[in-house]
TrEMBL record:
(6R)-10-formyltetrahydrofolate binds at residues 64, 89-92, 106. Catalyzes the transfer of a formyl group from 10-formyltetrahydrofolate to 5-phospho-ribosyl-glycinamide (GAR), producing 5-phospho-ribosyl-N-formylglycinamide (FGAR) and tetrahydrofolate. Signal peptide: none annotated. The active site is at residue 108. Residues 4-181 form the Formyl transferase N-terminal domain. PROSITE patterns: GART. SUPFAM superfamilies: Formyltransferase. Keywords: Purine biosynthesis, Transferase. The keyword Protein transport does not apply. HAMAP family: PurN. The record marks 144 as: Raises pKa of active site His. This is Phosphoribosylglycinamide formyltransferase. Its EC number is 2.1.2.2.
Amino acid sequence: MLTVAVLISGTGSNLRALLEAARHPDFPARIIVVGADREADGLAHAEEFGIPSFTVPWHEHESREAWGEELARQLDVWKPDLIVLSGLMRLLPPTLVARYSPRLINTHPAYLPEFPGAHGVRDALAAGVSETGASVIVVDDGVDTGPILAQERVPVLADDTEHSLHERIKPVERRLLIDVVRGIATGDLALTPSS
């Protein structure tokens, strides 16, 4: 059974989808802990499902490296097989990435390498493209530059707003994330080491 830690910053909609999938007896992975970089609303999902959680507040640390060291200490208590960044809105320090890679994966609301960064949906709309997408990647030291594990296109409609487009991307992101975690757990999907 693959053990999974999930790190969040916000409402945790991808986390909830993963928790619901993992509740099924035939799902080959279990969420063992949820962490956050703030008092995130999504921690309520962990509580509802009886999953332990921890918080490593970003603002309480003098540097990204110091925050990453404390995050690593918390994760090492649980020794997860896989760490999922699920809306964690912080760049991990290189030392943390090196420690866990390639067992670190992330979702992104764009068809990478198109529109990396924190505003993938907004950037796609600003570019006037007819389609964008969702991706699941291995985390590396770059910004959304790691090896792609799964992705799918999502059309951009003429009347789309950032909100409406993001709401159509989210279900695709969730499905891809669940499929990737299942594939890693069964051995059908290999984690590509970061170069």
